[in-house]
């Protein structure tokens, strides 16, 4: 069971006297606040206001943990941490930043950081991360002692290291989940889509008799399968209607973007292979590689069905959702063309008992989303809604029956 925050804080204070921290932040108020807060836990904490000063301070006296912002004068955080890594390849590092752009995130991952904290920094979050990092440092110190004096305990410490690596994987995945949630906040339809695809994929995999490890793998792949949409322009991602040929080609690029992002992380190799083929088709007409039949990863075959099932059971602007049974019938109809017959025959039956929430829709449900739709449907000069918006209102009314009559002038 995970330690509570109070327990973690207590243990950190007990260990804090032996841990040194170097903190680099150019925002004076945040640097002062975090210095005071961390100073109540760690006895040795040194603060600097830019990357150049931080690096010189590290050269003068290295620290167990380096915490740094990214965008700073003279030398940014990424550049400073690269220089530190050249001196100590296994340096423990945490990045704090208000920026969630994929290039910053990928640069941080390549450095092998322990965590990427999005500002504003919450005390609870940084305590949880510091607790894990400090435990890792303590374990590493103990490992060195055992290596020198107690060779008989090496095997036990290898297992401990494995657990710590799993914690690091979890930290990566939690950061990626933060990016997924950020993507899904951009569109009412995609909100929750990844979680549903992950759940449906796992349900199918379990019904097909896959192991717990494989079921967990396809679930994790489902959570991350649309991460490449972080690079998709809002004008395409948020378009409340059918895409034209060029727009479809642009949004299809999210598969390659996602696999390129995840391919930088060796621990996600199996997940990347699944995501890379989740828009392929059994008959070879899919994208991006045009794979066919057994060429498609078996876990990807499952996700293809799960993704289609969620799309069919969700209200779209241009097409109302199908019932669960209607969606299953259509999946069965495309068996051997879009879908792997084995997945359809053995797995789809498990989806019959799935309950679909009524709230899952691409239609606007509040004033803010209505205004977002205005970008596509309102005339910029007159401020009036166009013919297409009337179609949207009529379609929405076919579900909600909010309007009882229409007046034509």
Roughly how many Å apart are the termini? 66 Å
Q: Quick check: average pLDDT? A: 83
Principal-axis shape equals globular
Largest sheet: 5 strands, parallel
Low-pLDDT runs: none
Portion in helices:
55-70%
Give the gist of this structure.
This protein has 409 residues and is mainly α. The chain has helices at residues 5-15, 28-39, 51-60, 77-87, 102-111, 123-149, 154-184, 193-207, 212-224, 234-237, 245-263, 269-275, 298-312, 324-333, 341-347, 367-377, 387-400, and strands at 20-24, 44-48, 65-68, 92-97, 115-118. The longest helix is centred in the middle third of the chain and has 31 residues, at 154-184.
Topology, element by element:
Blueprint: H1 5-15, E1 20-24, H2 28-39, E2 44-48, H3 51-60, E3 65-68, H4 77-87, E4 92-97, H5 102-111, E5 115-118, H6 123-149, H7 154-184, H8 193-207, H9 212-224, H10 234-237, H11 245-263, H12 269-275, H13 298-312, H14 324-333, H15 341-347, H16 367-377, H17 387-400
Parallel strand pairs: 1-2, 1-3, 3-4, 4-5
Helix pairs in contact: 1-6, 3-4, 4-5, 6-7, 8-9, 8-13, 9-12, 11-12, 13-14
Provide an overview of this structure.
With 409 residues, the chain is mainly alpha-helical. Helices cover 56% and strands 6% of the residues. A five-stranded parallel sheet has the order 2-1-3-4-5, with helices on both faces. β4 (92-97), α5 (102-111) and β5 form a beta-alpha-beta unit. α6 runs antiparallel to α7 and α8 packs across α13. The protein is globular. It starts with a helix and ends in a 9-residue tail after the last helix. The mean pLDDT is 83.
